[in-house]
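Tokens as discussed.
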């Protein structure tokens, strides 16, 4: 491999990487960079933690995995210096999620490869097509789980591959949030029960990324539950539904009261 090719395989300064601690010395630790063909990097003692460090192995030990930030790259010599203390909690969390997703995507593609008896070249072609529209392979499986397999129609893939991708996406539990409340609704009109039932039936739906369900608790109480990908979408749908019901009931001279209940995160799938 030429020096230019070797240099192109080095990480960039500021990049967050996964490393394995290889050897701890009095001055720091030598690590191997998992995503860069296990090339060696150095973690100086001054970049392990703030303040005086009495025992390096309190922070890093041989064979331990660590999330590090690349702070210097000497492309001519192929040397990489890293930092542990400069990695923020958010950067560490984000990197670990990325690695976990990458591992899951590899498992999905390995399963599809074995099931359909695909070659490495065929798998690479599928991944290339996906990466034209997504930053990571895992993202398309998560998108199928959220939005349905119809989105695969815009990809030039065989029906067998599409079907296998849909099946693998079913293994993903899509996180959802749930907002809840109780409505107290009454009407003194002779057909008051029918008015209430028809009003509530007109609000139950699955649209705009949210699902709205209403159940009877016991006169005059009805529970409304809205599930969505995040609280912003769920709250908007809840507010729209409640105001629609309030307006319809009050137009019919009925009584309406709404009591919020505690929201929660749930999993779907």
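Sequence:
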């Amino acid at each position: 491999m030429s020096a230019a090719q070797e240099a192109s395989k080095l990480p960039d300064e500021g990049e967050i990487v996964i490393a394995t601690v290889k050897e701890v010395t009095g001055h720091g630790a030598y690590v191997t960079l998992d995503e860069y063909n296990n090339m060696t990097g150095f973690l100086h003692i001054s970049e392990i933690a703030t303040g005086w460090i009495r025992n390096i192995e309190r922070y890093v030990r041989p064979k331990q995995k660590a999330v590090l930030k690349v702070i210097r790259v000497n492309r001519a010599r192929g040397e990489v210096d890293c930092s542990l203390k400069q990695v923020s909690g958010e950067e560490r969390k984000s990197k670990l999620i990325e690695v976990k997703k990458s591992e899951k995507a590899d498992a999905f593609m390995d399963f599809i490869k074995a099931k359909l008896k695909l070659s490495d070249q065929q798998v690479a072609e599928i991944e290339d097509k996906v990466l034209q529209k997504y930053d990571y392979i895992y993202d398309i499986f998560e998108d199928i789980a959220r939005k349905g397999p119809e989105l695969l129609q815009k990809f030039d893939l065989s029906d067998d591959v599409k079907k296998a991708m849909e099946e693998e996406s079913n293994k993903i539990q899509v996180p959802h949030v749930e907002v809840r409340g109780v409505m107290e609704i009454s009407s003194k009109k002779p057909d008051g029960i029918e008015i209430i039932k028809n009003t509530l039936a007109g609000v139950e739906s699955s649209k705009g990324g949210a699902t709205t369900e209403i159940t009877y608790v016991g006169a005059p109480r009805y529970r409304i539950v809205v599930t969505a990908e995040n609280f912003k979408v769920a709250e908007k749908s809840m507010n729209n539904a409640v105001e629609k019901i309030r307006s319809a009931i009050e137009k019919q001279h009925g009584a309406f009261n709404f009591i919020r209940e505690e929201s929660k995160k749930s999993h779907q799938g």
